[in-house]
């Protein structure tokens, strides 16, 4: 069980105020009863083995908007499965420049980079009031032999996440600004579809500046591109509400990729 964060520790969180806090960990929810168990747990795990995974959870934790779940350099405390809400991960260059390296939705696992070196290499911040389930790494490793399919499925999940993020970043390096934005929106749509959300309508929890940092574009370029795509009838934008009005038209803008 993690100890309660001190006022001094909380003051290190972004946008700290007296009312901003990370809630104490609550009693663990059972993986077998979780509505996301087929999203964040490997599909290779048989239903009869699901109860065996209940021991993996070390407790649920609420994280307020703009508060860090963990910071770069913090000691590795396990993996985190996003139960609700969303997060962004950020890295710091040698020059001290912060860059968004990914966005995490319900069912995603974060913190795997902390396995190497036993400390986290990124800072992960909640984009909205969110909740995570802390997964004990030692418990996870010890369960590999007793739960068939867990190791294979977990490695495939991590591989898919790496392929998605690295593949996107490789493509972005040769794309125009518009193609980068369209690719990002379509990728986000596919991820929401996997969560059984409406694929053509969603709320951008991240700011335009966050998107620009992730895509390597300026805030002004992101805003201009959204305006142009809306003017062309491909999508509608109302602050952070996005409606993909013509998915095929958007795909045509990046058909060479």
Structure description:
- The chain has 257 residues and is α+β, with helices and mostly antiparallel strands.
- It folds into two domains: 7-147, Jelly Rolls, CATH 2.60.120; 173-252, Arc Repressor Mutant, subunit A (Orthogonal Bundle).
- The chain has helices spanning 7-11, 37-40, 137-143, 150-172, 177-194, 208-215, 219-231, 247-252; strands at 57-63, 68-70, 79-84, 87-92, 98-104, 109-110, 123-126, 130-135, 201-203, 235-238, 241-244.
- A four-stranded antiparallel sheet has the order 1-8-3-6.
- A hairpin with a 2-residue loop joins strand 10 (235-238) and strand 11 (241-244).
- Helix 6 (208-215) packs across helix 7 (219-231).
- The radius of gyration is 19 Å and the shape is globular.
- It starts with 6 loop residues before the first helix and ends in a 5-residue tail after the last helix.
CATH architecture of the largest domain: Sandwich
Helix fraction by DSSP (H/I, runs of at least 4): 25-40%
Number of domains: 2
N-to-C span: 47 Å
Please tell me how large the radius of gyration is. Answer: 19 Å
Backbone shape: globular
CATH topology of the largest domain: Jelly Rolls
Specify the number of helices. 8
Regarding CATH, which class of the largest domain? Mainly Beta
Short key terms for the protein model shown above:
257 residues; 11 strands; 33% helix; four-stranded antiparallel beta sheet; Jelly Rolls; disordered N terminus; 8 helices
């Amino acid at each position: 069980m993690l100890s309660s964060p001190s006022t001094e520790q909380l003051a290190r969180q972004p946008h700290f105020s007296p009312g901003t806090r990370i809630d104490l960990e609550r009693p663990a929810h059972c993986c077998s009863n979780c509505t996301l168990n087929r999203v964040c747990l490997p599909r290779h795990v048989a239903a009869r083995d699901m109860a065996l995974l209940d021991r993996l959870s070390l407790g649920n934790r609420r994280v307020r908007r703009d508060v860090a779940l963990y910071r770069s350099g913090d000691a590795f405390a396990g993996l985190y499965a996003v139960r609700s809400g969303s997060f962004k991960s950020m890295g710091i260059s040698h020059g001290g420049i912060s860059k968004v390296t990914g966005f995490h939705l319900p069912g995603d696992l974060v913190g795997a980079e902390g396995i190497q070196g036993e400390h986290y290499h990124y800072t992960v911040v909640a984009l909205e009031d969110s909740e995570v389930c802390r997964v004990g790494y030692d418990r996870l490793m010890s369960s590999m032999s007793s739960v068939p399919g867990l190791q294979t499925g977990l490695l495939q999940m991590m591989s898919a996440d790496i392929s998605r993020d690295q593949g996107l970043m490789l493509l972005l390096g040769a794309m125009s600004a518009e193609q980068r934005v369209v690719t990002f929106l379509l990728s986000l749509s596919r991820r929401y579809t996997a969560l059984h959300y409406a694929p053509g309508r969603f709320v951008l929890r991240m700011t335009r500046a966050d998107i620009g940092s992730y895509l390597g574009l300026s805030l002004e370029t992101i805003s201009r591109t959204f305006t142009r795509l809306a003017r062309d009838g491909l999508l509608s934008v109302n602050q952070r509400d996005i409606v993909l009005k013509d998915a095929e038209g958007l795909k045509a803008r990046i058909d060479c990729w």
